[in-house]
Amino acid sequence: MLSSKQPNAGTAAAVAVPTLSVERAAHGAPSYALKLAQIGCGGRGTGATVQALNTSNSVHLAALADVDQSQLDKTLNILKKQKPDQTSVPKERQFVGFDAYKKAIEAADVVILATPPGFRPMMFEEAVRQGKHVFMEKPVAVDAPGVRKIIAAAREAKKKNIKTAVGMQRRHQPSYEELIKRIHDGDIGDIHTMRAYWLGNSRDGKERLPGETEMEYQIRNWYYFTWLSGDHIVEQHIHNIDVVTWAKNAYPVAAIGQGGRQVRKAKRHCQIFDHHWVEFEYADHSRMFSECRQIRGCFPEVAEYVHGTKGVASVPPSQKVFSITGPKAWTKRLKKRENGHQLEHYPFFNAIQENKPYHEAEYGALSTMVAIMGRMATYSGKRVTWEQAFNSNLTQMPGHVDYDVMPKVLPDEDGWYPVAKPGDTVAW
Ligand SMILES: NC(=O)c1ccc[n+]([C@@H]2O[C@H](COP(=O)([O-])OP(=O)(O)OC[C@H]3O[C@@H](n4cnc5c(N)ncnc54)[C@H](O)[C@@H]3O)[C@@H](O)[C@H]2O)c1
């Protein structure tokens, strides 16, 4: 049987990967082909498709969907070169437009959802409605209504025996798994403090092109609009927030925070902050401190630390030394960082082929909710409780999206978009 942990974890993408068909043939069980659809033809979606195809020769790319033909063409060219024997996407299965996702879902057994996350809830809901297995990138939503939609569809997926995976790849790195197991086994005692960091940078904003509609511009520059990306505390820092949430195995009861824009001052930076700092409070009075910053030239750190009554568990930025201090001290040194983006696909496809339960959507939604709650605290400058955050009905997603539809968020007459102002902004 294909293991959920491939032997050479750090180089999984580079090594010869046993195929499900070979493995299953050895056990006398038939293998069956799986048709894959990629929805959202950007960098991560295309990477995820290659990684999904790496799991087995019996997985084939059958359909692509995007709102932008040129993005779809780019992805198709990459995949034809990298995976020629597993890529079969004729014109009639290349779908472009805002309803392209529905048609791509129809053409597949398994779908990869890798559009900007604002669209994730409606696409996940549709995939579950059509009974298809889903790998979806993180974050799985950008607001509380989206989180609730994902949770409802995730529960439906469980009933329908649909497998769901979420691209929080650290959950499939063996060293993280071992560290978290040790925490859960009590090796650091009771957790009283957690620290989560993504201090670095990201893609720059995009200038408006002549003749573009407002919707075209916002979708092309999606990272800089909260209704599409969730802001970087949700879009990027979710990874670290998810790790400490996994370690703590609990959700915060309240949060306070602060954030703003020190360097994002151009029109192309539309709406999002460049730094957020949040203190999350738990029912047992423990705290999680979360920091994310996207400012060049500052101290970089992408890491997680969990402090307990008997020791500290650390994953430093390199992700090559995992350690625990205290009476149950433990250190694991890796020569090479584990390739979580590849590793996360093996157990998912294995579960599909073996028809075993596989349900990541709900924890993906709840970790996403923690990050959204953090943004609510930094945007509003107020203390927000889990109840307020989770039950919020605030959304900036238009009821219907198309290139000629006006988004809800619009620039003023000088071209400046609304930016949250702590103290004034209503964030939930
Ligand atoms: N797990 C990770 O480490 C990781 C890393 C990078 C990105 N991501 C996530 O992957 C997702 C995609 O990020 P990316 O970097 O590939 O972005 P990208 O901008 O490169 O690609 C997004 C694609 O989606 C298309 N698109 C936009 N709206 C669409 C719609 N309504 N229907 C169909 N297609 C649509 C765009 O045209 C574009 O081709 C995001 O959620 C991001 O947070 C995860």
How can the largest sheet be summarized? 9 strands, mixed
DSSP helix fraction:
25-40%
Low confidence ranges: 1-30
> Beta fraction of the residues?
15-25%
Unique ligands: nicotinamide-adenine-dinucleotide
- Mean of all residue-level pLDDT scores: 93
Provide an overview of this structure.
By secondary structure, the chain is of the alpha/beta class. It has 2 domains: 9-170 and 356-361, Rossmann fold; 174-337 and 365-390, Dihydrodipicolinate Reductase, domain 2 (2-Layer Sandwich), CATH 3.30.360. The protein contains 15 helices and 15 strands. The protein has helices at 20-26, 43-54, 69-82, 100-106, 120-129, 144-159, 174-184, 214-220, 226-229, 232-235, 238-248, 340-343, 345-354, 361-380, 386-390; strands spanning 34-39, 59-66, 94-96, 110-113, 133-136, 164-166, 191-200, 254-260, 275-281, 287-294, 301-308, 312-315, 321-324, 330-333, 384-385. The strands form 2 sheets. A 9-stranded mixed β-sheet has the order 14-13-12-11-7-10-9-8-15. A 6-stranded parallel β-sheet has the order 3-2-1-4-5-6, with helices on both faces. Strand 2, helix 3 and strand 3 (94-96) form a beta-alpha-beta unit. Helix 2 (43-54) packs parallel to helix 3 (69-82) and helix 6 packs antiparallel against helix 14. The longest helix has 20 residues, at 361-380. The protein starts with 19 loop residues before the first helix and ends in a 38-residue tail after the last helix. The model is unreliable at 1-30 (pLDDT under 50). Nicotinamide-adenine-dinucleotide binds at residues 39-45, 65-68, 71, 98, 100-101, 114-117, 119, 137-138, 167, 169, 219, 235. Residues 39-45, 65-68, 71, 98, 100-101, 114-117, 119, 137-138, 167, 169, 219, 235 line the site of nicotinamide-adenine-dinucleotide (NAD).
